[in-house]
């Protein structure tokens, strides 16, 4: 089933989309909290017990990510089993934190 999944979905076990302007406005997001909103977490994936929807990914391995292209770029050198550091912003809690997880997929 991983044939039609994007590389980032396999590596992180999440599906994301760019934060929509209306969401940003409603949540009064600061510029530094703009990024990629997690819309789905794969229950079998690397992020299963670590991440949830409504979290915004702002950095991957200390690289700023705003778009899917940024995310794919930040994950280019990441292989299955590598540790990945994600800086996340929680809209609900209005705070950032860093989560580390082991990249999924087969190499």
Show the helix and strand layout.
Layout: H1 7-12, E1 14-18, H2 21-26, E2 36-41, E3 55-60, E4 63-64, H3 68-74, E5 83-90, E6 95-102
Average pLDDT, all residues: 92
Give the uncertain stretches in residue-range form: none
Head-to-tail CA distance between termini: 16 Å
- Major sheet size, sense and barrel closure: 6 strands, antiparallel
Over the alpha carbons, how many angstroms does the gyration radius reach? 13 Å
Element order, helices and strands? Answer: HEHEEEHEE
Summarize the amount of helix as a percent range. Answer: 10-25%
- Beta strands, count: 6
Shape: globular
Helix vs. strand class: alpha+beta
Please report the number of helical segments.
3
What percent strand?
Answer: 25-35%
Describe, in plain words, how this protein is organized in 3D.
With 107 residues, this protein is of the alpha+beta class. It contains three helices and six strands. Strands 1, 2, 3, 4, 5 and 6 form a six-stranded antiparallel sheet that branches. The longest helix is centred in the middle third of the chain and has 7 residues. 29% of the residues are buried.
């Amino acid at each position: 089933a991983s044939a039609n999944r994007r590389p980032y979905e396999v590596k992180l076990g999440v599906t994301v989309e760019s934060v929509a302007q209306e969401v940003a406005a409603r949540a009064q997001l600061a510029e530094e909290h703009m990024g990629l909103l997690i819309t789905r977490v794969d229950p079998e994936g690397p992020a299963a017990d670590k991440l949830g929807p409504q979290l915004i990914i702002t950095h991957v391995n200390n690289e700023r990510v705003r778009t899917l292209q940024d995310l794919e770029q930040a994950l280019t050198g990441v292989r299955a089993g590598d540790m990945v550091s994600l800086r996340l912003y929680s809209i609900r809690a209005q705070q950032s934190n860093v989560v580390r997880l082991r990249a999924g997929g087969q190499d």
